[in-house]
Amino acid sequence: MTQILGHHHISMRTKSGDDNTRFYRDILGLKRVKVSVNQNDPYQYHLFYGDNTGSPGFDLTFFENQRLGNTKRGTNAITTVGLLLDSEDSFPYWQKRLTDYKIKYEVGTYAKYPAILFQDNDTVQLALIASNGTHAPFFEPWPDSPIPLNQQIKGMGPVEFVVRDLAESKKTLVDLFNYHEVYNNGKEALYQAVEGDQTGEILVTEKEGPKERPGRGSTHHLAIRVADHEALNEWHEKITQHGYEVVARHDRYYFESLYFRDHNDIMFELATDGPGFTVDQKPEELGTILDLPPFLEPQRDEIMGKLNPLKGIKED
Asked: What is the average pLDDT score of the chain?
């Protein structure tokens, strides 16, 4: 049986690419592995952060739009991103680092794991989690990270959906995708793509209220991993057989993907592991120039002319 392998990436909205880079690269110590564009709107940046090669299972990605207003938080939305640390022994280091950068935080729990809870400059909700020793598949440390190796973020952990109908999310995750249910108390449930592995976990919380109105800091979609083109074809068929509509399918050059919404209006992307971000660059070159897929390369001059300034990519 074709299996979902865990998270692939998650895509959010930011108002400033420079502020976003400062937060995720300079403060959290993630490598900016790609500076590209939103392929559906190529005059907006698409920024990617992760490990040294942008391994699937790690990538945090952001669409920049300087006209974004504030998000009005609500239900039927992807709300929080978990980031994995080796253990709770890393908490003092991160508490000091967040304090040094004047970032407010709380120490508590997330998905029943010990966690440090905080927000980025766009109000993306983040949780640094004491892991059980797992990390993103193929994790490769970034040698130039400002964070010592033993304190580095090792991958993406549980991602939270806040929805009006937990049972509908269970149908998608368990009945369609064969996720393992770790616990379910009727109002909160935790699911794993691969049993015992935190890198593919989804936390689902049931909550009444108005639907979220997206803006800066909101999440556009969660992408989950499939092995290759053949696996994507199989999942395409299964998704439609379960009564969901595939709303788009694309070859993104760095991976293939398809998109659909579940019955809580959560946008999922299924993305292949390959060919990956090193298809057109060496690891040491990643994130240093504007990368365009071949089908957009003929428009490079026009695209560069319309993009906002971004330090190291396009100066004022």
From this structure: 96
Which pLDDT tens digit goes with each residue over 62-111?
A: 999 999 999 999 999 999 999 999 999 999 999 999 999 999 999 999 99
Single-letter amino acid code for the residue at 29: G
Cis peptide before 294 (omega within 30 of 0): no
Q: Reduced to 3 states, what is the DSSP secondary structure of residue 126?
A: strand
Say how far apart CA 288 and CA 255 lie, in whole Å.
Answer: 20
* Closest by CA position to 14, among listed 121, 117, 92, 101: 121
Report the alpha-carbon distance of residue 17 to residue 32 in Å, rounded.
11
Beta bridge partners of 310: 314
Q: Is the pTM of this model over 0.85?
A: yes
Q: Among candidates 200, 196, 204, 139, which has minimal Cα distance to 171?
A: 204
Cα–Cα distance measured from residue 79 to residue 160, given in angstroms and rounded to the nearest whole number: 6
Residues in the chain: 316
What are the residues whose beta carbons fall under 8 Å from the beta carbon of 163, sequence distance 6 or more?
Answer: 75, 76, 169, 204, 205, 206, 207, 264, 266
Residue 161 near residue 258 (C-beta atoms within 8 A): no
66 to each of 14, 217, 227, how far by Cα in Å?
Answer: 8, 12, 35
Q: In the chain, which residue ranges form alpha helices assigned H by DSSP? A: 17-21, 91-100, 166-170, 229-241, 300-306
Mapped onto helix, strand or coil, the DSSP state of residue 71 is: coil
pLDDT in tens, 147-192: 999 999 999 999 999 999 999 999 999 999 999 999 999 999 999 9
Backbone Cα Rg of the chain? 18
